[in-house]
Every structure is written in C-alpha cells, then in structure tokens.
Amino acid sequence: MLKTRFTEEFGVEHPVIQGGMMFVGRAELAAAVSNGGGLGIITALTQPTPDDLAAEIQRCKTLTDKPFGVNLTLTLSINPPPFAEYRQVIIESGTPIVETAGSDPTQHIEHFKEHGLKVIHKCTSVFHALKAEQVGADAVSIDGFECAGHPGEDDVPGLVLIPATADALTIPFVASGGFADGRGLAAALALGADGINMGTRFMCTLESPIHQNIKEQIVGASTLDTRLIMRQLRNSMRVSKNSVSEEVIAILDKGGRFKDIKDLVAGVRGRKVYEFGDPELGIWTVGLSQGLINDIPAAADLVRQISADAEATLTRLTGNVVADVQAV
Description:
Blueprint: H1 5-10, E1 16-18, H2 27-35, E2 40-43, H3 50-63, E3 68-74, H4 83-92, E4 97-102, H5 106-114, E5 118-123, H6 126-134, E6 139-143, H7 158-168, E7 173-176, H8 182-190, E8 196-198, H9 200-203, H10 212-220, E9 226-229, E10 237-240, H11 243-253, H12 258-261, H13 267-276, H14 299-327
Parallel strand pairs: 1-8, 2-3, 3-4, 4-5, 5-6, 6-7, 7-8
Antiparallel strand pairs: 9-10
Helix pairs in contact: 2-3, 2-14, 3-4, 8-14
C-alpha cells in the first residue's frame, strides 16, 4: 500500500482525493470515495443554505465512518454567500478536514485552525501555495493547466508545476489537473507530490450525482473536447466544448465584456446540464483528463484500482532500474 505524507497526516489509506465540485460533491459520492480509502469531499456551496449543508454532512456520516472533508470555495461576487455561516456549520459538524479554494483564505484558515480542523488549500501557482503555507494550511492542492474549472492565468502544466511546488513547499501537497488513473498517480509521486486530487474522473462513477448522459459524453470525449473561456477577462475557465462555450468565446473575441455573457455562463444553467442530461443547456466544467476515461466504475473500486496500479507501476520501474544496474 502506498504511504505518503498526505495519507499519514490526513488518516486515509490511499493518496487520492475527490476534490470539491459544484453540484457534484454530494454525500453519496464523498462517502463512496472515503469508503474506498480515499478522501471524499462535500461541496459546501452546492447546498443552498448553511442549514442544508449541516444536513448533508450528517447524511454523509450515515454513509461512511471514514474521514471526509468539506470544500468551501471563496468566490468574489456582488452578493457573496454567507461564508462565515457555512464555515461555522463545518466547524460545529465535527468534520475534521476542510478544502478551501478561491480568494484569500487567511481569515478562514485561521478560524478553522483555531477549532482543530486540518486545512487543504487549492491554488494554481507556487506563489499562492507558499502564501497558503505561510497562513497555516496543512496541505496544498496545486492545480495545473490541465484541470477543469479555473486553471489560473499562468498556463503552467503539471509536469513543470508539480516539481516546482515540491521544491518550494515544506508541507504536503497533492497534484490536481489531468489525473485519471494509476499512471498519473505514479507520475505525480515521482515529481514530488504526496497524492492526487481528481474531479473529472470522479464525475464518471456510479455514485456521481450527475445525469448518465453526461457521464457517457465524458467517456466518449477526447482531450480536444474542452474549451478555455473568459481568457480575455483574465478569469479563464476550462469547460466542455459545446454551442454555449463557442458562443461565449465568439462574443468576447468581438470585444464583449462580462455583462454580455453573464447569462450564458450562469451556474444555474450548468446545474441543469447535470440534472437533465443535455450537454447543450449551459456551461459545465470538465478537464483534459476526460480523454483518459473509458468507464463508469464504483468510486470505491476506482480509488483502490488507481492506488494499486500506481504501486505496480512504481514497482515495475524500480525493478527495471535495478535490473539495468545489475546488467551493467
């Protein structure tokens, strides 16, 4: 079994995290990942109110006795959610782990740490990873350019970003963006990470709460079937290639601004994609890793298989090195 700084510090069997995903990170999926020995994550803002989040956390506790966490993404908006109330629910629920993401997490990390929670902060650059370490994060999830959703504006892929992060940090970190199987986990560990964080791969599992049509579309898609939108606004977002994402790109290419696309990129439309199974209903996030996904397994089986395959890959490579040295 693979043991890393992450598995040791966060009390999980396998160095595999199911990251927070809007409208996807619900109790059934998080519990299934945790039952498989990984770290499942409930997405706080998927729940309409803090009280709904409290109920979802309790529901997850009925489905697993293994560690799981809650994602709190700190969005910047005119009418922000009541972050302090969501934060308090996470603390009072007894959830031991929280994943923060988005804007400056300092205040939230300090509050979580005061109450004994372990914090993983998701970011897209070494600079922000170092900042998270400085303000008390226990671990970092570093997103490469390949990821779904917001990859940042630096366009640094994992092959460079992971070892650069390993050189800079002293706390454990997991790699995110482009991971879907044991080969990816083995590569991440070789580059200095302590595990992997996957979103798109977990969308294609039996317990994922999205429509079967969308799961099957991901399975049938290639690495060429995503689009980066809102580049001109420096708010880049990797989404599925469809008529809506093409319209957004065309409007911005002609000099449009956010007000001209806000109805097209509205989150409520993406939720309808997952609910009704029509991939053309709105913008929905998916990563380059969809080109590596060929099936829709149970989440627990997926976690165990990825870890086992990574261990086998590393053992094989180590054996090849030893054999070559002996031959010489």
